[in-house]
Specification:
The protein is mostly helical. The protein is built from 5 helices and no strands. The protein has one domain. The protein is globular. The model has no long low-confidence stretch (mean pLDDT 77).
Length: 131
């Protein structure tokens, strides 16, 4: 049984549309802040997006959704760096590849949560050289 092209297209389009929320949130928070800190809030949003996506693809996916885990709470690092996920069927559905499933599972609430943590200090601190 192979992968279904229609399911793959749906997951790609849905994930891309949801990822468009990240720049939208950056512009929302920069519009709510003072004028002098608007650019730094956009910078913090994009930096937190980058860090969280990096963490997700290197060890987060393996710890959260590992199919070879020994307990029911946390996985192991068997798929560290998405090793061996290119052509394997996903744990969610055998109709899409596991690599696409990992892209779908990096949901914005993981990214937005990190962003909201940084929002608490957005107007109060300098962000690197901006501010």
């Amino acid at each position: 049984m192979g992968f279904n092209a229609g399911d793959q297209a749906y997951i790609i389009v849905a994930s891309a549309m949801v990822l468009l929320m990240i720049p939208g949130i950056a512009f929302l928070y920069s519009g709510l802040a003072r004028r002098k800190s608007a650019l730094s809030l956009i910078w913090v949003t994009m930096m937190s997006f980058s860090v969280i996506v990096f963490q997700w693809y290197f060890w987060g996916y393996s710890l959260a959704l590992s199919s070879t885990a020994t307990n029911g709470f946390i996985g192991n690092l068997d798929k560290f760096g998405l090793r061996g996920t290119l052509g394997a069927p996903s744990p969610g559905s055998p109709l899409i590849p596991e690599l696409l499933y990992s892209f779908y599972q990096v949901r914005p609430h993981r990214i937005i949560l990190g962003r909201l943590e940084k929002e608490k200090v957005g107007d109060r601190r300098r962000v690197l050289l901006l501010g």
